[in-house]
Amino acid sequence: MESEGHQEEKTMELEEPVSPTGQYFNSSVLSICVLAVLESEIPVDDSSTMSLLQDVFLPINPRFSSIMVSDKNGVKKWKKFDVNLKDHVHVPIFPSGLSLKCYDDYLNEYLSRIAKENLPQSRPLWEIHIFKYPTKNAAGTVVFKLHHALGDGFSLMGALLSCLQRADNPSLPLTFPTLQWPSKMDNQNENFFLGVPRFLSSACNTVSDFGWSLLKSSCVEDDRTPIRSADPGVEFKPVTITTITFSLDHINQIKTKLGVTLNDVITGIIFFGTRLYMQSSSKKNNAHSTALVLLNTRNIGGYKSVKEMVKPDAESPWGNQFGFLHVSIPEPSSTDADQSPDPLEFVLKAQKIIKRKRSSLAVKLTGRLLEALRKFIGPEATARYIHTTLKNSSMTISNLIGPVEQMALSDHPIKGLYFMVVGVPQSLTITMLSYMGKMRIAVGTEKGFIEPQKFQGCIENAFERIFKAAHEIHT
What we know:
By secondary structure, the chain is of the alpha+beta class. It has 13 helices and 16 strands. Strand 13 (407-409) and strand 14 form a beta hairpin. The longest helix is centred in the middle third of the chain and has 25 residues, at 192-216. Residues 318-466 form the O-acyltransferase WSD1 C-terminal domain. It is found in: Cell membrane; Endoplasmic reticulum membrane.
């Protein structure tokens, strides 16, 4: 029989429970990870890697030096683990003296391979891959692979920023673009009689959106289209990751011309480009397709330090704090395949749809539903519900805000930065990240099903047409 002291020691090892979302994302049906790709301006010198990980990365959060285990009641908890850093650092070897094009191909294949592989459950759920070869975008590339059970994009970005400094002056803090979210207080002095219709509209939208979300998460699937194979086990298939870069100044010009938000413009570009791809790949131009738009549910305007995030009752807590909206990808007003659609209608429709859905409480109700499912049928069954939600839609869109200034990782200036969510049961995943005045869009596509270069061309075409149409508006 174990002594009380030994039992107490074991209890201390298992004191931090895994969050509900962490359990869903690391379950028998879901294993979702984030690849964060840092492009170095200079060749990568990895001699300080181990000290950086030991002294800076691991202390960021106890989860980086813990494994996920189940107690005797089946409840998952984080258990402190003695990390062997060599198990987590990978430096692939390729032939030397090749062209940039060859190394681009090697990097793309390498990203596809590590995206497909599951992280071992026997050690902490993260890895670092150092690609020490020049490509067209960088002199060297560092890839952080982090399991989504560790936290959402906001938390993981905050963790990465803790390892980075401003390239121009490490003593100064990084700054971020100002975000202007609609305030709950904006209408506090609004006339009561004007507020009643707004309340009724919000209530109707909540019922409609929540009901539609329930259907999409259970029995209503999107059509099979050029962006949705609907194949079982699509999350286990190889992916191709491509990126597109746009100027934030150009996006802001569109935003000003149309009187919308930056997110409306970006989402409109994605929707228009997706429809152009579908139109060019199929005669069926009115197929029903849904995007899951991920939202950070923290009521904040910028990143907090990791120390602030892990405090009890933090304003911006560490973990998975997000919800999702089901947004139907707008169809062109004209059903004539020979008639070119109006580029601006996609931005304006995106604005209208997302504004309406943001005014409803469907995201909060969905969160309550997931929590109720977890309590009554368990985290594994809830994970299956989330898997179906993802599988039944066509694509996922998520975005993060990066710093205005150039960053450096261990004296390596970072010239480019993007991320990709992998392990999702969909054929198409799109992420966006702003950095140094640029918006980097990363596109993850099912290999052999979606044509990545063609899709990229459609997104670029959509941007050019929207930019041109916006500048033709007389102000």
